[in-house]
Amino acid sequence: MPNRNRPLAASIQDKDVILQANNLKVHFHLDEGRLKSVDGVDLIIRKGKTLGIVGESGCGKSVTSQALLRIVPKPGQVEGEILLKRNGGEETAEVVDLVKLEADGKEIRDVRGGEIAMIFQEPMKAFSPIHTIGDQIMEAILLHRTKDKKEAREIGLETLASVGMSNPKQRLDEYPHQLSGGMRQRAMIAMALASHPKILIADEPTTALDVTVQAQVLTLINELKEKLNTSVVFITHDLGVIAEMSDEVAVMYLGKVVEYTDVDTLFYGPRHPYTKALLNSIPSVTNRNTRLESIEGTVPYPMNLPEGCGFYSRCPKAQSGVCNAADIPLIKVRDNHYVRCLFAEDQNTGGEGQ
Ligand SMILES: Nc1ncnc2c1ncn2[C@@H]1O[C@H](COP(=O)(O)OP(=O)(O)OP(=O)(O)O)[C@@H](O)[C@H]1O
Known PROSITE patterns for this protein (predicted)? Predict the structure, then answer.
């Protein structure tokens, strides 16, 4: 167990928490050195709530979600804790540390697609092209919910109908390539939900879709979350989508969470210069008359990084000898609001508003 204080106040001991990631690290040991894709991330997933994870490309969002399912490709190494409540009701649930499970063992395979399911940007990744949609959805149901094939087909049909699939009976016997992009996305959500997961991880699930279908899929995920009380982890680089989907938000930068709070505070009282820069780079009702700023530079490659704040090289508030002297901890600025910036409590520098 990592020997340090847990920065977030909530923990797996709380009734409404289903998963807690603690000091999660994913490092790739490459010939050129150690690449720190995820570097000490703490997350709390609450029952029936959505945690949004946002940040630019390369911040470590996808690798974090891969770690939660233990599907990090080699030579990635996962460290820290991923504590999941599983099996049984409120009182009897056992807490399992997914990091300790064998990466391809039975227990993690039961969790994958059972307790935790995932949907991707590209549904073709989730489906095999040579089996029908029905066979693939039924496989998940037969694995996790019933052994009876007839019943599994009925559940498959119901699930397809529940995600708004037109002609669900006919779709069951079709192959993935026969569906439109939007319908394939619905089929993938149906497959993910067929096993009644407690947590649905959605990694940029709508980026490839046109705007209307995107809106429909987001609405669908929100409806299913309400109806089934599923927890959702929603990963995106789009703050507009974050606003629509999230209850709480983790802003990631260079493998670390730099700001963590509820969605209203994030938009109305951001404290980290990176969050503010992200907010300033999206068109919105409040800043449509001012020039949009883009964040200068790109996310550094997470190898052989210097000491100090990861945002130092791009931060307008950076102070030499202060911000680049030592790594910056996640600081609690008020209840349920955490910021990784030495000036987070200074109203003039990192303070409320933008
Ligand atoms: N399999 C891998 N092997 C080596 N490095 C990897 C691997 N996967 C990701 N990385 C590196 O880890 C860092 C984080 O990548 P990640 O894909 O998690 O970012 P992201 O925030 O999800 O970005 P995007 O939105 O582009 O997917 C990047 O620097 C990336 O190059």
Answer: ABC_TRANSPORTER_1, ABC_TRANSPORTER_2
